[in-house]
Amino acid sequence: xxxxxxxxxxxxxxxxxxFLKKENEELIPAKEETKGITDTYRLLFSIIKMxxxxxxxxxxxxxxxxxxxxxxxxxxxxxxxxxxxxxxALLAVPMVPLQIILPLVISKYTAGPxxxxxxxxxxxxxxxxGLEFAFLVWWAPKVKHEGGFPIYYYAVxxxxxxxxxxGLYSMYVAIMAFNAKVSDPLIGGTYMTLLxxxxxxxxxxxxxxALWLVDPLTVKECAGAQGHTCATAAATEV
Length: 238
Known about the structure:
It is a multi-pass membrane protein. By secondary structure, the chain is mainly alpha-helical. It is built from ten helices and no strands. The two termini are 39 Å apart.
């Protein structure tokens, strides 16, 4: 019902914008280098061939490998250890005001001439949070009782998630600020879209690989079936 309602709102509002919003044709558009789709892709190709852009793309595509597993798998592992999904969903509620405030605070530190300094400083903290999340998963079965999990466990999870949001937004806002700063104003939209797309890809592909590797890297034991390792899906089925 939640998804249906907001899906309907999304469709209605975007349709109203499409039909009711009119462009201001009196303003003379600034000169742009691109006139169509072909020109845009040709321009993107010429941008990405620049040595500095290639180096930056390589760095940003690999910078999030270190904490991708912790980010992608922790929630699933907590559910596997018995933490109810609805409780994890409720823990996201206190994060909402934090997600609104953090970009406003962090933007003060990324507005200067070197916005990536914030990115560099946040990196070791996010790597350490990977160990913290691993501890949370290891700790879950130790504190679990018949009634569920104690309040102090949830308090530690909320605190860990809050620290995670701080590191995440520090890196996110820093990258956005850097992309805005280095993009050529003449083709700002095209330039920024390219860099932001690479940045998003740099966060998505390591998470996908981490999720794919969970099963083959998980050590399993078969109860009551000697000689079976349960290492493969077929062996587990047997």
